[in-house]
Amino acid sequence: MNLFADAQDAKVVTHDGSITLYNHEVGECYHSKGGALAEAQNLYIGGSGLCQRLQVGHHGVLSVADIGLGLGYNACSTLAAWESQETVPDLQLTSFESDTKLIRDLLTGRGSWQSNWDHRWLGYVCRFQLGGLSSGPLQLLTSSGRHPHSLAQYTWTIVISTASSNGLRCLFDQELASVPKFDFIWQDAFSPLKNPDLWSADWFEALRAHSQGACTLMTYSVARQVRDALTQSGWQWQKVKAGPGTKRHWLRANPTA
Ligand SMILES: C[S@@+](CC[C@H](N)C(=O)[O-])C[C@H]1O[C@@H](n2cnc3c(N)ncnc32)[C@H](O)[C@@H]1O
């Protein structure tokens, strides 16, 4: 196997050279061996058609949900994709993560997996004020930035809590009431075996209730229980061919009309 794992910090260099971590407690890596960066760019950004949606023009704020911020690959790839387009709407990126220590490492730019990140990505994560970060049950961090070629602005909100379907419903009624309904969802929790609550029909129903009719949800899991949970909660799904060096299929879902 063409992987290098460091037992001390569980750092794993994936096939495209980007670095992920192995979580000993969960018994899984944060990304596929095929490439942490490749997964973010091919599955979530490429597979969803985010850039094409921006190119044809999007009315109102583009709202993206990032379930399982983790090491920040999907979130930073979203910001980079938005910045790469000439004409864009404002962007609201909402990330959910329960691991406060991981967030602290990510947002200081000193995470062991960030050693080969470029300055642009480090700029995204280091813009947060970490002064008040504690280990309370719910915290929200927000940062913002301008598009390089237009007046458009992004807002990145990180919701630090153990997400659950009921918790999500309360957040959308209260703290996240001003977040526009999602246009895109990156469903990237640990596997359904290890993280079952975030793959249940109830979870997908809570996400659907806060999604636009044309929302696109992307995920790496094509497990039967995931497909069934999506169907039960009003999503129609299709398998899409996965990128090179990884599994055969990923999943794309849209709310049922
Ligand atoms: C597969 S990793 C995500 C990788 C990430 N999307 C990236 O781009 O680097 C899954 C993440 O989900 C987080 N997570 C698991 N259960 C959660 C929960 N109930 N609420 C919030 N975050 C959770 C884990 O702490 C972990 O960081």
Question: Roughly how much helix do the residues carry, as a percent range?
Answer: 25-40%
> What number of structural domains do the residues give?
1
Strand content: 25-35%
Alpha-carbon distance between the two ends:
45 Å
- Order of strands across the biggest sheet? 7-8-6-5-9-10-12-11
- The CATH homologous superfamily corresponds to Vaccinia Virus protein VP39
Supply the CATH architecture: 3-Layer(aba) Sandwich
What string, H for helix and E for strand, traces the elements in order? EEEEHHEHEHHEEHEHEHEE
Tell me, briefly, the overall form: globular
Taking all Cα atoms into account, the compactness measure Rg is: 17 Å
Mean pLDDT: 94
CATH class: Alpha Beta
Under CATH, the topology is which? Rossmann fold
Ligand kinds: S-adenosylmethionine
Question: What can you tell me about this protein's structure?
Answer:
By secondary structure, the protein is an alpha/beta fold. The protein has a single domain (36-255), classed as Rossmann fold (3-Layer(aba) Sandwich), CATH 3.40.50. It contains eight helices and twelve strands. The protein has helices at residues 36-48, 50-56, 73-84, 100-108, 119-125, 165-173, 201-209, 224-232, and strands spanning 4-6, 11-13, 19-23, 28-29, 62-67, 91-97, 139-146, 153-160, 182-187, 211-219, 235-241, 249-255. The strands form two sheets. An eight-stranded mixed sheet has the order 7-8-6-5-9-10-12-11, with helices on both faces. Helix 3 (73-84) crosses helix 5. S-adenosylmethionine (SAM) is lined by residues 30, 40, 68, 70-74, 96-99, 102, 162-163, 188-190, 195, 198.
